[in-house]
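Researcher: I'd like a structural prediction for the single chain below. Treat it as a standalone chain; there are no partners to consider.
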Amino acid sequence: MSDLNCNVILKETPDVLSWNNDIYMFHYKQRQEVKRANMCVQMNLISIVLHGTKEILDHGSKMIVPAGSGFFMKKGSYLVTDKVDDPNQGYESIIIFFSDEWLHSQVDSILANSNEVITEKCPQSIRDMALLPEDELMTALILQLKTCLTLTADPKRLEVLLPLKITELFHILISAPEGRNFEMQLRSLDTHLNPDLVLLMQSHYKENISLEQYAFLANCSLSTFKRKFTQTFKMNPGKWIIQRRLEEAYSLLRSEMNITEIAYEVGFETPAHFISSFKEKYRSTPKQLQQKL
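Model: Treating it as a single chain, here is the predicted structure.
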């Protein structure tokens, strides 16, 4: 699987609870591991991982979400991996989509009881996603929501209750020990950050992802990505990635890591490729240089 379109997933998933096209909630299950899929997120979402592990790359960071924890995503483009820890359970989560419009209509009540009033502008360091650490109150409410998806009660009755339960979830997340981070994310929804090419590459040059996926994270076509990259870095992407990995490897020669460990740490798929590339750049093998340092 190479693409995950949230609108398509919603249409193809049975038993989706919804409210006025502003909130959607469903039980997501995946038996097979999904690796580095392009994910288009058209609505902001909160997801709680029930089984398995989620790995997410946005344009400037990487996040690992274990079972029991959750994550928040702004609208945008991401690379996602659904890791299956137990083949009998697969990957499983509860996903809740909500619109900007609904949040704006609820913002006064949701943020009114936050632990501290934040008056300053949201810092530029805020990313497009946030980890929601495991929390007893969050877990209890998510189990309630999961049960709602399996009940045979009147769907109209459940739809009326849905926004009330989602509002309750927001209160729980904001009141959690690390809730300020989530609150700042909510306050920054109107200031969606445009992907910065330098940040994107410096954050992910070690990852084994294709140029097409770099372009996807940068929200542009492959041809536009290559053109902007060359203008910014004065060389093509493939050459820059190799050079940057080798520079990082050189600095790691002083560490206690062996050559094979360094090769994998900086993103090379095989030690042999790393050694040949290193020798071409530095005129010595990494082992030879390591012995001199």
